[in-house]
């Protein structure tokens, strides 16, 4: 949580809204049912931008107001479904008794909060304090949203915050990058799929190489016959390379046909046949020819007399063919990100109290 000096710095930038988020268990008063919730405690200034929509539509301060010993709350419909209750029912959050006054229809800053593992339950900051959940060992994420008078001051504010509070542990973000964790996850997922595709390509190439080697081993007698009839090594190599390329083209054609027909049979799943055909062509063409070079290089295409050790027959050897598999490098992923919104400056700190 921000210190007094850090709070004074943020309040000097503009209007500040503070919220706290953590996961907790919501249970019925009789203990018959319980469910995990994404708890969000907000103050009276929330939200700085947009509008929270609820069903029924009421002002947020009225929904979160305290009535005697019971605090108000707004919950996602999924939470009511899991607990088997309806609006107006009471639940327990820690030591606090909560009455759900409405269901949550739209949350203005849901995207910036990231992915949630449980339905949302929004309460007031006073309700969170009364619950007793914030104590030593609790994992609480405090969020400070600031309405800036001039969004153009964002770069300067970032420099000032990092200079004055270098050890604050803030993650400063702007509305232009409201969910950096989501962007990072998408980037990592795309890199993972790329790695999977390249791995499948390499495995396919190894399989083709083994198949071609086995095929050439079975053709040794034919190769020996060609050499006895005076065929040069280059001609024998070109003959079998042409055969392998022909088989590879047939495999590509089959792959293209399957790539065009599968989307038609699975029309319920949206897809782009053109992109699918392009990927099939790219993955089918490379293993065939590239995987064939190594077996052709290793095949014994020498004249039978040279294999028998006859003198003067060494010039019949098949010239070596180079083959190399380049290594693949995956760029390092940065875990830490800084972020500031266009007209909203947001500082987030993850505190273990």
Task: Describe the structure in your own words.
Helices cover 42% and strands 21% of the residues. The chain is built from 11 helices and 11 strands. A 6-stranded mixed β-barrel has the order 1-2-8-5-7-6.
Main attributes of the structure:
alpha+beta, 11 helices, 11 strands
Helix proportion: 40-55%
Q: For the terminal residues, how far apart are their CA atoms? A: 9 Å
Categorize the overall geometry.
elongated
Mean pLDDT: 76
Q: What percentage of amino acids are in beta strands?
A: 15-25%
Kindly name the structural category. alpha+beta
Could you name the ranges where pLDDT drops below 50 across 5 or more consecutive residues?
Answer: 271-290, 310-353
Could you state the order of secondary-structure elements as H and E?
HEEEHEEHEEEHEHEHHHHHHE
Task: List the quaternary state of the chains.
Answer: single chain
Strand count, sense and barrel status of the largest sheet are: 6 strands, mixed, barrel
What Rg, in angstroms, do the CA atoms define?
A: 34 Å
- Compute the number of helices: 11
Extended strand count: 11
Question: Briefly, what is this?
Answer:
This protein is of the alpha+beta class. The chain has 11 helices and 11 strands. The N and C termini lie close together (9 Å).
Topology of helices and strands:
Blueprint: H1 4-11, E1 15-27, E2 34-42, E3 53-55, H2 60-64, E4 66-67, E5 70-75, H3 77-83, E6 90-93, E7 96-106, E8 120-124, H4 125-131, E9 139-147, H5 154-164, E10 171-173, H6 180-217, H7 220-228, H8 233-265, H9 273-285, H10 287-298, H11 304-307, E11 344-352
Parallel strand pairs: 2-8, 5-7
Antiparallel strand pairs: 1-2, 1-6, 1-9, 3-7, 4-5, 5-8, 6-7, 9-11, 10-11
Helix pairs in contact: 6-10, 8-9, 8-10
């Amino acid at each position: 949580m921000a210190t007094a000096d850090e709070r004074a710095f943020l309040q000097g930038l503009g209007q500040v809204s503070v919220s706290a988020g953590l996961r907790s268990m919501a249970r019925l008063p009789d203990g018959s049912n319980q469910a995990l919730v994404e708890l969000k405690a907000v103050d009276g200034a929330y939200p700085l931008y947009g509008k929270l929509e609820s069903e029924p539509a009421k002002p947020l301060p009225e929904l979160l107001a305290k009535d005697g010993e019971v605090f108000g709350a707004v919950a996602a419909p999924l939470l009511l479904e899991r607990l088997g209750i309806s609006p107006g029912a009471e639940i327990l959050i820690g030591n606090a008794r909560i009455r759900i006054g409405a269901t949550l229809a739209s949350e203005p800053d849901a995207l910036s909060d990231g992915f949630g593992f449980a339905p949302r339950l929004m309460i007031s900051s006073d309700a969170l304090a009364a619950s007793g959940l914030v104590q030593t060992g609790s994992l609480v994420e405090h969020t400070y949203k600031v309405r800036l008078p001039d969004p153009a001051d964002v770069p300067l504010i970032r420099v000032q915050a990092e200079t004055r509070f270098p050890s604050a542990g803030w993650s400063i973000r702007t509305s232009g990058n409201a969910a950096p964790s989501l962007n990072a996850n998408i980037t990592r997922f795309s890199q993972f799929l790329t790695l999977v595709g390249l791995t499948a390509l390499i495995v396919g190439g190894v399989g083709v190489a083994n198949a071609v080697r086995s095929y050439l081993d079975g053709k040794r007698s034919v190769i020996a016959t060609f050499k006895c009839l005076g065929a040069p090594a280059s001609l024998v190599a070109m003959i079998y390379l042409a055969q392998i390329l022909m088989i590879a083209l047939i495999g590509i054609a089959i792959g293209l046909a399957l790539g065009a027909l599968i989307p038609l049979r699975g029309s319920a799943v949206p897809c782009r046949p053109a992109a699918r055909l392009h990927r099939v062509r790219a993955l089918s063409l490379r293993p065939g020819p590239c995987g064939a070079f190594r077996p052709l290089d290793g095949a014994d295409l020498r004249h039978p007399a040279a294999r028998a050790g006859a003198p003067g027959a060494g010039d019949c050897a098949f010239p070596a063919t180079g083959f190399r598999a380049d290594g693949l490098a995956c760029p390092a992923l940065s875990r830490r990100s800084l972020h500031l919104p266009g007209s909203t400056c947001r500082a987030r700190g993850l505190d273990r109290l």
